[in-house]
Amino acid sequence: MGLVLLVVIWLITFISAYFFIAKTWWLPTGASAAAAGIDHHFTTTYILMGIVFVAAQVFLGLFAWKYRDRAAASPARYSHGNNTLEIVWTVLTLILFVGLNLMSSSIWASERFRSAEPGALQVEVTGMQFAWYFRYAGPDGKFGATKPELIDPSAGGESAIGLDTTDPASKDDVVTGTMYAPVNREVEVILRAHDVIHSFFVPAMRFKQDAVPGLAIHMHFTPITTGDYEVACAELCGLGHYKMHGMLKVVSQEEFDKWLAAREAEKQ
Amino acid sequence: MASYTPTVSIDDPRTSTGGNGVLPPAWGGGGDNFGSPFFDMRLRRARLGLVVGLTGIAMIFISFTSAYVVRQGLPTLDPRTNVLLHDWFPVPLPRLLLINTGVLLISSVTMELARRQAGRKAALAQLAAVPGVLADADEKVSWLPLTAVLGLSFLVGQWMAWRELGANGFYVSSSPSSSFVYLLTGMHGVHLFGGVVALLTAGVASMLRRPADSQSIAVDVTGWYWHFMAFLWVYILCLLEFVH
Amino acid sequence: MAGGTGGGETIMATREFAAHEAHAHAAPQGFIRKWVFSLDHKVIGLQYYFLALTAVFVGMFLSLLMRIHLIWPNAPLPLLGEIKPETYLSLLTMHGTIMVFFVLTTAPQGGFGNYFLPIQIGAADMAFPVLNMLSFWVTFIGYIVMLSAFFVVGGAPLHGWTGYPPLSALQSAGPGEGAGADLWVISIALFCVGALMSALNFITTTLDMRVKGMSMMRMPLTCWAWFITAILGLLAFGVLFSAGILLLLDRNVGTSFFVPLVVVNGQLAAHKGGSPLLWQHLFWFFGHPEVYIAILPAMGLCSQLVSVFSRKPIFGYKAMVYAILSIGLLGFMVWGHHMFMSGMSPYTAFAFSVMTMAIGVPSAIKTFNWLGTLWGGRIRFYSPMLFAIGFVSLFVSGGISGPFLAQPVLDIPLHDTYFVTGHFHLIMGVASIFGIFAATYYWFPKMFGRMMSESLARWHFWFTFIGTYAIFMPMHYLGMAGATRRYSQFTEVAYLRDLIPLQKFITYAAIVTIAGQFIFLFNLFWSMKYGKKASDNPWEATTLEWTTATPPPHDNFGGRTPVVYNGPYEYSVPGAPRDYVMQTDPSTVAAH
């Protein structure tokens, strides 16, 4: 039985480790400025923790087999422990865990402790059961007022977010169901939700943030590769949670300007 | 008034002090050393259980306090103006609450008298078991029913305070601060009612002539619970009145 | 009685004591007093255990329906027909709630803790037997209320076991958020009351009823685990209770503790100014200690079993105690790691993440000590030991994914993905269930006087050990690839469609593993009647439950009171006649 345990535990360990090392299923290719740092730290973590995982399971299997009871075995070693060993492995574990955390803290700080740069593109992202809407402030750089009484999700677009068309600042606001962003320019998202908590998750951008009713949460990221990136809602929001998805299209600055101009023109 | 503190040498393997040791007197309070180590053990255990239980109850009110503080300081986004609003306006508390507080504090005094009275009864009951001893309580006032009455009066007074709040337009959902007034007073009232039920049960047990020592333990524990409820009430009142 | 001063009082004390004992510990007569409203902690422990047993099969059945729906979303199921998205979410909500509360928080503590804590410390019962009985029946009523949510108009709620408002606070936010959600909250509130009552009993009993010689540092680690778990419960369940009251008020009387101004389906709701984050803070202040409540008893038992079945003292008893204490204490300081993406301040997030990494240290110490106990031992592979070894493996696997999630930067891609689901199922779900299985196989002889079938137990072990790895290890890969949680199907998002083959594998593994659990169920009931008769100490273990008859008499020790001379792990003591020295054995004084 000891040998069987060893074999099974080792097999499970090595098969699991294989799929991690082979990256058969892995994080999507990073497409934001922050992704490289996050991915690098992810790799550091998974290598260190992977070593611990494999070592612990290997020893478990080994001991199960090596110290099995059999007639020829010597009596069990009577020992209540070893204080030095306790101290040593406690300190080492503490260094490993806290060290990893401190290493990641600089990335966290650079992502979250600072606000967006002054020239960032502002996009208001609103989540509601069960769609995402994106609003651009337009040439005046100001978001127009919205009123809860004007919210009508069935009408889509401007009505869905309750845009108050009497407000002059609303005249050039563009509301779309697909998010466009120019490459290599920081995007500041202002996250809002109408009804329940949603979460704006763009895996390729390594971006996730809950959209909470009653709050307007400011976050930022910088796309560095053009392409189409899926957006999935990442906080249970009701029966349509599985189909509340959107699309982020990262294009060149010229294409973005053309697209925005076309949307403005449609409004006239 | 009998006060009885014997020293007993016992060999009771159930205690962790071991055989042939001298037991220390039971915990605190006045006049509740009855010389029986077994009684002391039961009393100690009951009191320990009460302390543990009150810790659990305290966590409920600590959570409410935390919610109260957070809610006070919390701005929410007015979606019309995109501005963060503070919408906390304290509720003017009815003067009646001060009267209720007085009633509760007096009931705490009568509760303490009842607790000691039950202790004396149990001590005398022990003595009465010794052949040839005549023990007579000669107690003029029965404090326990009086405490129950005061407790019920407090609860009635709280109900009247709620009516007064309602008459002034403050219902449970009228504003965040009024929600907390109803919540905190209501939860306290529920727990105090539990204490009243315990008192009534003890009173019934007395009438049914249950063993005096069990009764005294029950009244002792209820007494400390009652004092905690009085303290909790003063805390809640101060929280509502002074913490903005 | 030894003569002393105050002979009259001594006589009275003895008589009083004897009378009390005779009254309290006379075995009850009649079916109702013996089996329904019993005050005997052993019967109450079994009541909790069998409640958890029905709950785990309900919970497993719900997860089976979920897994089938995920890979065949349009297929109608027999009896239930087509499962709509909201039904999937109801299954998910109830699966999580029932498993966490009525299985993981019930069987290890209410079940085995009730049965064996008093016996392991030498007591005749819990401190407050009436309260103990009440705590079970309150929990039972809570369970019935929870199940009733399935049968009301709108069905069971769909807001997840975490119940975040506004989704859980607004009746209009989804099907099942009407009466079903109210019943869910009420059930949880009842459970909190039952748990607080039980915690009161456990703490008082441990502090006040240990027999002579049973100092705190001679208690088996199971007792330490039950004791600290009870303290966690005492401090945490009150907070959940409060949150539940606030939620009930928001749902039914129009308060706005948790709900800001919201518009649902174009309708303005009658709330404003509340904070959804307030719920999250209150819930997780409870929720994090709760996961330790779910796992600590299993850790205590694992320590017990690796020692008994390696014939070696536990490696580092003191360190194990300090580790349990640290886990308990730190467990109250890390709740924010569930909220890194919530909108909480990033500075607070950083503080929580440091504490969270710190709590990994005592868990690692325990793992090292379990390995240290195996090292140099003479391991006997009886079924309890198989599950104990399995527990260590699963605990390591589940624990390793923790440091990923504990770092906020890495939590960004991983939060609310299947990586989290894999993590908590391995370390809290499966590991704790292995503890429950191990406890069953270990203590069944003492409870029922018969041995369970070892060969059936081995089949059960291999099915479950391999099967649960096959279910939950792949979830980590899914999570890294971005597979979001709580989706009722994967057909709408392209990158999720690509992951369906792996989801299929998980479902097949789940079907096989669930089937394997019926081996256990059969073994359990068959052995009660036909199992080999068990001796009083079939495992040759040293703790107090093995000194008494099998099954134990009503007052646990048949009228005598044990006296303890040794620690609980005196195995293979050099010079001793056998390879184990009972805790009550005065003849060998073991050196520490």
Describe this structure in words.
The complex is a heterotrimer of chains A (268), B (244) and C (592). Chain A is 38% helix and 21% strand. Chain A is built from five helices and ten strands, in the order αααββαββββββββα. In chain A, the strands form two sheets. A five-stranded mixed β-sheet of chain A has the order 3-2-1-5-8. In chain A, β6 and β7 (207-211) form a beta hairpin. In chain A, α1 (2-22) packs antiparallel against α2 (35-66). Chain B has 244 residues and is mainly alpha-helical. Chain B has a single domain (40-242), classed as Up-down Bundle (Four Helix Bundle (Hemerythrin (Met), subunit A)). Chain B contains five helices and four strands. A two-stranded antiparallel sheet of chain B has the order 1-2. A two-stranded antiparallel sheet of chain B has the order 3-4. In chain B, a hairpin with a 4-residue loop joins β3 (76-78) and β4 (83-85). In chain B, α1 runs antiparallel to α4 (176-207) and α4 runs antiparallel to α5. The longest helix of chain B has 37 residues, at 37-73. The model of chain B is unreliable at 1-35 (pLDDT under 50). Chain C is mainly α and 592 residues long. Chain C has a single domain (43-547), classed as Up-down Bundle (Cytochrome C Oxidase, Chain A). Chain C contains 18 helices and two strands. The longest helix of chain C is centred in the middle third of the chain and has 35 residues, at 276-310. The interface between A and C is large, with 101 and 120 residues.
Helix content of chain C: 55-70%
Rg measurement of chain C, Å: 25 Å
Strand order of the largest sheet of chain A: 3-2-1-5-8
- Judged by helices, strands and strand pairing, the structural class of chain A is alpha+beta
From the N-terminal CA to the C-terminal CA of chain C, the straight-line distance is 35 Å
Sequence of secondary-structure elements of chain A: HHHEEHEEEEEEEEH
What structural class results from the helix and strand content of chain C?
mainly alpha
Oligomer: heterotrimer
What is the annotated CATH architecture of the largest domain in chain A? Sandwich
Alpha plus pi helix count of chain C = 18
Q: Which outline of chain A best applies? A: elongated
Largest interface: A-C, 101 and 120 residues
User: What is the number of strand segments of chain A?
Assistant: 10
Termini separation of chain A comes to 79 Å
